[in-house]
TrEMBL record:
Keywords: DNA-binding, Transcription, Transcription regulation. It holds the Pfam family LysR_substrate. This is LysR family glycine cleavage system transcriptional activator. The keyword Transcription applies. InterPro entries: LysR-type_TF_proteobact-type, LysR_HTH_N, LysR_subst-bd, WH-like_DNA-bd_sf, WH_DNA-bd_sf. Residues 6-63 form the HTH lysR-type domain. Transmembrane segments: none annotated.
Length: 296
């Protein structure tokens, strides 16, 4: 008869948390998030049909039955490690995480921050492909997909990680010759448009109570990142999403001449297929995106 084994990832999380007395310390050792450790432990508890830990604020304590279980499980992991060492450990295989994200978001927000993720998680390689296709139209099977939201897709879990608003931005050099003190001053400027987002300027001008404003000129680009680059280069004024121009505003490459109004916008969210929800690499990347999103 084939032996009945518990879920091994859950057992590994239990062993580390029980030995260290902390989900947080176990997460550090296993290179996952504390939430992932908690989820694995909860899965094992459900599988066994009994609690394994008593929770006490930031510490956890094994139940008496779990102590006896750990006393037998722990040596098995040690034996497995010794057996693997005797067999000979092969070269580490790259654990590549495949990500699909919109091009402008990738260029202006994700790429400048990826070095931080790599520094904190050197064992996880990331492969990024860009696309603006709807999630349900993607042909390849990605580990993690970034799109606007929050939306609901059958078979996927969703987590928002970065919110944004939209407001006019331009190069500080542009304002030296033609200041922008009020929305009406845009009449003397070139407004930069993106063909895929035709309503941005009309909606903002309506909110600013100058719906009939006619600018000195209009320049339209087919990609949003080109529109933003044109604003940085002093060609005109663009409608900038706050998340994607955060670094440029902080560095002084762009300025926001008006405090408001600000157009509401959809958040950036991660979408992960349910069958991949237990992947530790995905949990790490999701947690990192959330931490970075808080500061942007």
């Amino acid at each position: 008869m084939k032996p009945v084994l518990p879920p091994l990832n859950a057992l590994r999380a239990f062993e580390a948390a029980g030995r260290l007395g902390s989900f947080k310390d176990a997460a550090v050792e296993l290179h996952v998030t504390p939430g992932a450790v908690s989820q694995h432990v909860r899965l094992l508890e459900e599988w066994l049909g009994a609690p394994l830990f008593e929770r006490h604020n930031r510490r956890v304590q094994l139940t008496p039955a779990a102590k006896a279980y750990l006393a037998e499980v722990g040596p098995l992991f040690e034996q497995l490690a010794h057996a693997t060492a005797r067999f000979g450990v092969p070269q580490a295989v790259s654990r590549t995480l495949s990500v699909n994200a919109p091009a402008t978001f990738t260029l202006r927000w994700l790429v400048p921050r990826l070095a931080k993720f790599r520094a904190g998680h050197p064992g996880v390689d990331v492969k990024v492909e860009t696309s603006n296709e709807p999630l349900e139209s993607l042909k390849d099977d990605y580990d993690l997909i970034i799109r606007g939201g929050p939306d609901t897709f059958y078979g996927y879990s969703m987590q928002p990680f970065l919110s944004e608003e939209r407001l006019p931005v331009c190069s500080p050099t542009l304002l030296r010759g033609m200041p922008l003190r009020a929305p009406g001053d845009l009449r003397g400027h070139t407004l930069l448009h993106t063909s895929s987002l035709p309503r941005l300027w009309p909606d903002w001008l309506a909110c600013a109570q100058v719906p009939d404003l006619r600018p000195a000129a209009v320049l339209t680009f087919d990609h949003f990142f080109l529109t933003l680059q044109a604003a940085i280069d002093g060609i005109g004024v663009a409608m900038g999403p706050t998340a994607l121009v955060f670094d440029d505003l902080a560095a002084g490459r762009l300025v926001a001449p008006f405090a408001g109004p600000r157009l509401p916008s959809r958040s950036y969210c991660t979408y992960v297929a349910h069958e991949k929800s237990g992947d530790e690499r995905i949990a790490l990347f999701r947690a990192w995106l959330e931490r970075e999103g808080i500061g942007s």
